[in-house]
Amino acid sequence: EELPDPVAAAQGEAARAHLAEALEAGDADGAAAAAAEIRIETGDPSDVVARLAEELDVDLLVLGPHRARPLEEAHAGGTLERIVRAVLRPCLLVAQEPAGPYARVLCGVDLSPAAAAAIRAAGRVAPDAALTAFHAVHIPRLGFFGHVGGPNDPFVKEARAELRRWAEAEALEPRTPEIRIVEGSVHHAYDRLLHEIAPDLLAVGAHGRATLSPTLLGGFARRMIYEPPCDVLIVRR
Length: 237
Fold this sequence. Notes:
With 237 residues, the protein is α/β, with parallel strands linked by helices.
């Protein structure tokens, strides 16, 4: 809004032409271009996108990858992060060129309502994909006896019981696959499964159980904004 009106108008028309060309190039018969509404708005991107998401009552917000701007990120976070924090709708961050429908989805579970929402949203975005959900469990070394671990470890048993209670409380669909328990930190579990199943979509809750403000992002979700291994679906509720 700080630009002179003639300059802003010229940039807006250039943006409209660019978007129309991209739509036509992405659809051979022109159906997408005919169906899409192009809006050129003025203002801070996070404010404008959040307002439009509510005004249009969108089911999904699709965004391109983060572009590094060190000075801006040091002050208030990157534009992409600020948009995800401001919007209550599911956000799909597209990090790679699509090659077809999603085939493999990886979803982290931290026993939060946002994680349950991420599983549901992944089912809508990728209904035919194979879904792998995981829950990371830290097992401390038990003094003289060392590291125990395994399916009979008391920490693993307690985690399995908590997962059952959580799934029942969140009323997850019966067809939701069994959630894998992976020993170690969430980053260790994520790295292991990332190499094991090679997902083309990662679904995560925007924040965990301990988050005081719904606009804050959990550390794992924030990392995925800046270092996406594939497309990332971030869901708040």
